[in-house]
TrEMBL record:
Keywords annotated in UniProt: Heme, Hydrogen peroxide, Iron, Metal-binding, Oxidoreductase, Peroxidase
Record GO terms (molecular function): catalase activity; heme binding; metal ion binding
Classification via Pfam families: Catalase (PF00199), Catalase-rel (PF06628)
Superkingdom: Bacteria
GO annotation (BP), single: hydrogen peroxide catabolic process
Stated name of the protein: Catalase
Active site per UniProt: 56, 134
Comp. bias (Polar residues): 1-23
GO CC annotation terms, alphabetical: cytoplasm
Amino acid sequence: MSDQQPTLTNRQGHPISDNQSLRTVGERGPATLENYQFIEKITHFDRERIPERVVHARGAGAHGFFEPTGKVGDEPASKYTRAKIFNQLGAQTPIFLRFSTVIGGKESPETKRDPRGFAIKFKTVDGNWDLVGNNLKVFFIRDAVKFPDMVHAFKPDPVSNREEAWRFYDFIANHPESLHMVTWVKSPWGIPANYREMEGSGVNTYKLVNDQGVAHLCKFHFQPKQGVRNLTSEQAAEIQAKDYGHATRDLYDAIDRGDYPEWDMCVQLMTDDAHPELDFDPLDPTKRWPEDQFPLLKVGRIVLNRNPDNFFAEVEQSAFGTGVLVDGVDFSDDKLLQGRTLSYSDTQRYRVGPNYLQLPVNAPADNARARTNQRDGQMAFSVDDSGANKHINYEPSMLGGLKEAPRPRQDYHQWVEGHLGRYQTTRTMDDYKQAGERYRSFEDWERNDLVNNVGNDLKACPEPIQLRMVWHLLHCDEDYGRRVAQIAGIDVSKARDLPPLPGKPAPGQNRGGPTYTSGQREEAGKQETAPAK
């Protein structure tokens, strides 16, 4: 990089010395509210488009229900969580599920290679719970401060208004943590055949909390009863030539004919601690929890059985936020989750309006109706029920109005201490291991599609990006890097001679975690359970 490059600042003109990390209490601690740089950056990003969503603009949705098993695997659900939604055996909780693509605009084709959004609004007896996830179990980044940069790199060039491969790979080449997600997205898993035949995942790490105030780290997953089916680039192109909205059509028609899509809802659990025995941080959303160590435990099922009556009112105006939780489900210190929790609801207040929760598709169920002292604002068309005395719109009061709910018998208290600062994750496996394992777990046709997609993309990239990407892929798996280089016409020996990225650990040097030889990586790849096809 040139020493003549201008210095990055915030909107106040303050120089930014660290644009990679939130301010947190210690390396693994929670983010703090006074993250001015992040708040300015993310809230501006949330307002970059109107009225279309900046991300997840193209979508489809349907109504349905969640039905719990009353268990987590073979054990009572109450052992892990006091959330009523999991403990009321046989009760059906209404849901609205919105599927989407991420980067494309509202009229973009649904055959686009892109992660798919999988956002569910559970209308529970304790109010709404939003689980905002994707079809894949990992993400590109692990710190929310990078989200605007990531989306800018993946969106069209601000000058030419064209999506460019070099922009995408320029970002990826500087973020080895993204290689795992890229290996998924550039394979056939990057183009699900439709919304019914794809997995869902909460991606981030949450916590389940029981009546005793004991917490467990948790990841949420959804396995389709219809099976999983993906498309190659050639198959997607054939569909796209005839239909830009094939997935929306498929979902609507299936529900209309009574062929209701269904998913098993599962969780992965581990105790609420740092887990130094693992070679990755369980709070890192760029990593999967190995299913042989942390199996998928069924907690219920979701079924979609009713199409929207009006697409705009229900699908376009449906609004989700990762901060919308119910008692018994809590936040972890996952830095991506912490940033999303501010960003998502802030986006909805801007895009739909401060009273977006008064819209029927977003409002809680009647048995958990909103009762707040919040008033007025743009497009207010109702007043929250504030109790018998409507003159009292504050709390506490001796004259009526609302009162606080009873506190849990045993509240959950997380001990937090550490030096306030900006930290990058250090106690993690190197960012190449799981990407290599994923490459080796694919079937031959999936590997072929992956290397052809990446290799052909790199043909359109400048040489520095080409060489760095091949360098990264060689460290994921020798065959992976070599085949991509061959397709793109890149000199493998020239790529192999590059030094590590400045400020990043060399592959295998985990800054606090164990290292792996190539043989150990190969063995780990064999042991991991291959994904369902």
